[in-house]
Design a protein that fits this description.
This protein is mainly β. The protein is built from no helices and six strands. Strands 1-2-3-6-5-4 form a six-stranded antiparallel β-barrel.
Length: 116
């Protein structure tokens, strides 16, 4: 069966997580940057740009809110988000400020850290 285009989730998101050594220290590359591993990817929808408190989560500050199909994957605050807009090709990279899974899906609020 071919994949179905769902207009609620036209974009893509990747979740990246810092890699740690056996002593709990983050592993860095030759430039001194932390090594990030892709731990999750999904289709998603860009719901709104949020500035300030969101009543659906205890988010005090976030730039974007993503909606994903319901997932049991364990997201963590401060994981890195790499969002790709399917229409424009724009890539937005940031850090998770909060997340919440509802009966209809999972929302991720994240703070933009610049474009990737």
């Amino acid at each position: 069966m071919d994949s179905i285009d769902n207009p609620r989730f036209p974009h893509k998101v990747e979740i990246l997580r810092v890699e740690y050594d056996q002593y709990g220290e983050s592993i860095k590359d030759e430039n001194g940057d932390e090594i990030l591993n892709k731990v999750f990817e999904s289709e998603c929808g860009l719901r709104d740009m949020v500035r300030g408190v969101d009543v659906n989560a205890k988010v005090l500050n976030s730039d974007y809110k993503l909606a994903l199909p319901r997932t049991s994957f364990r997201l963590e605050k401060r994981d890195t988000v790499r969002f790709t807009h399917s229409y424009t090709g724009e890539v937005i990279v940031g850090l998770i400020e909060d997340h919440k899974t509802f009966n209809f899906g999972t929302n991720i609020w994240f703070e933009s850290g610049g474009n990737g």
